[in-house]
Every structure is written in C-alpha cells, then in structure tokens.
C-alpha cells in the first residue's frame, strides 16, 4: 500500500551511470594497483543496466551518463572511434534520451571539436528544444556554444517536468586536457596547475597535502563565464521556484569525494550553488569509490560509483525517483539506496 501511495506522488524517474571506461582489452588496475578495472566487462554491465531500465514499470524519462564513457587506453590501442561506436550502439537501446557529460577520458581520446561532432554531444536535448515547458525564454541569451569561440564550454540545461531543471556543466572548461595549446584557457590552466603542483608529472599528487592534492592534470575547473552562465540559469530557477540538479564529471564538495578527485575551483562553484535556493543536488562521477554528503545549504552531493571498477557479478547504476519533496536513489550493486529530502525552505 505504501508503495502505491508513493507512486501517486511520483513526478518522474531518471537513470544514472558513471565511468563506464569501456575498452576491448584485458583487465587492468588503477594507478596505485589497489582496484581492478574490468574494461571489457563494463560493456556487459552497461548492457544489463539498459535492460533493467527498459523493463522498469515507469520508464525513466532520461538517462544521465556521467562521463568517461570509454577508457583513455583506447587512444594507445588506436580504437577510440570504434570503442565509442560500440558503447553508443548499446545506448541506442535506451528507452529514453541519453544526456552525456564529458570527463578526462573523453579528452584522452578526442579533442573538443571531435566531441562536439560526436554522439557525445547531447546539447540538442537541452535549452528548451525537447523537454522544456514553455520557458525557452532563457534559451538564447544564455547559450554558451558559439562555434567560433575556441574557448567555449560544453553545457546546457533542460526541464523534464514542470518545476524541475537539470544543468549539465563542463568541469574541464579550465583544463590542460582537451584545450588547444595556444588557447587562453589552456595557458591559464597550465599556469594554475604548475603554480600548485611542482611535480614534473602533473598527474602526481606527491608533496601535496589534503585538498591541495586536487591540483592534478586529470582534474579541471570552471571558467568565470561558465559560472556566470550557471548563475543566470539558477536565478531564473529561483524566481520560477524550480528544484535544480546540477551535473558534472568532477565532484565539487570536499566531503563527497577523495580530495584527489575534486574540481580545482570547487570553492568558487560552491559559492555559486549556495547563492541560489533552487539547487537541491549535485551529481558527479570520476571518483570510482563514490561518495555522498548533504551540505549545510541543503544540497545533496552524490558521487556515483564507477562501472569500470565494478566486478562482473555486481552492478553500478541507479534509477532516481523524483517526488515533490524528495528524490529516492534506487541504486543497484555497489550504489546504495538513498533518500534525498529537499530542504523545506527550497
Ligand atoms: N598518483 C598518481 N601519480 C601519477 N600519475 C597518476 C596518479 N594517479 C593517476 N595517474 C595518471 O593519471 C591518468 C588518469 O588516471 P586514471 O586513474 O586513469 O583516471 P580516472 O580515475 O579518471 O580513471 C593516468 O595516466 C594515470 O596513470
């Protein structure tokens, strides 16, 4: 009975999956050799996640793919295009549209121009074109994608249900990955990284303590212009009394992840999120061990466990059921079940 009553107030559901890192190669390990990586099996886990989403009584309205869809080793194997096609062919069986985030492994395989011209560019699903509910008035002046701007970032937003909005952000907007070496953002990012990390290998956290160990080449951050863009959308959402979930590959709260996985300017983006009553959740990937923290502004920081380090007999995906006053994460396998209550003042 309780379940039936809960269904009555259900607004919609959506699927989440992170760090698939598929490659047609033997199993390997993470850098410190503490965790096995199941490169081939990640495709099987994706397949069974899609199967389960297809079987659900309430079809998820959309799927969020949190980034690192194929592993960087595909670049050395010269199989980047093929591996991407294999994974995209699986996603073609999705019961609903798939929103793609870009992570560090995307940039090991492709440059930004290639990504914009690939199936990993899901911008056409955003900014009022498919799901929005008549509020496309925030579309044109906020669009970040000037095709002539080499420093443009990848980001968009959509509203799958009245009073709910999802914003996809680019956590590698400031990065030494993916940016052209003569671009302003690359030069700024390299300087930022080198001034905080004195190691020759900029992926090494040697000598960096605590949160300073985030200054690694495989991380990145948000430009001022992206934060302004986000600020404008969130202002619209505040005024429209929406509940907003922000999504990025890198986590942004220190208590929701290992410090080696957090965005460089997490403090700046947190200030933006905290300035808006509409933000209820931030969903990230990148840290394959996952994490969770409810911050003092009532924002749930959810870091999803990665498929790549999930043993074949387990799973790493979830379905999030959205109600007016909460979201319930139905995690499978390594992802736990969680109830994310919305702060009453939101
Ligand atoms: N502690 C470390 N010291 C030096 N290089 C590292 C370290 N951890 C990771 N790397 C390197 O950084 C890159 C990204 O690491 P990887 O573990 O593949 O990222 P992800 O966690 O996103 O899968 C790889 O080239 C890896 O060898």
Automatic annotation (TrEMBL):
Q: Which cofactor does it need?
A: Mg(2+)
InterPro entries (alphabetical): Calcineurin-like_PHP (IPR004843), Metallo-depent_PP-like (IPR029052), MPP_ADPRM (IPR041869)
Q: Which residues form the Calcineurin-like phosphoesterase domain?
A: 13-289
Q: Which keywords does this Swiss-Prot/TrEMBL entry list? A: Hydrolase, Metal-binding, Zinc
> In the record, what lineage is assigned to the organism producing the protein?
Eukaryota, Metazoa, Chordata, Craniata, Vertebrata
What family, per the record? Belongs to the ADPRibase-Mn family.
Q: So what does this thing catalyse?
A: CDP-choline + H2O = phosphocholine + CMP + 2 H(+); ADP-D-ribose + H2O = D-ribose 5-phosphate + AMP + 2 H(+); CDP-glycerol + H2O = sn-glycerol 3-phosphate + CMP + 2 H(+)
Give this protein's Gene Ontology molecular function annotations.
2',3'-cyclic-nucleotide 2'-phosphodiesterase activity; ADP-ribose diphosphatase activity; CDP-glycerol diphosphatase activity; manganese ion binding
Q: How does it assemble?
A: Monomer.
- What name does this protein carry? Manganese-dependent ADP-ribose/CDP-alcohol diphosphatase
- EC numbers listed for it are 3.6.1.13, 3.6.1.16, 3.6.1.53
Highest rank taxon of the organism:
Eukaryota
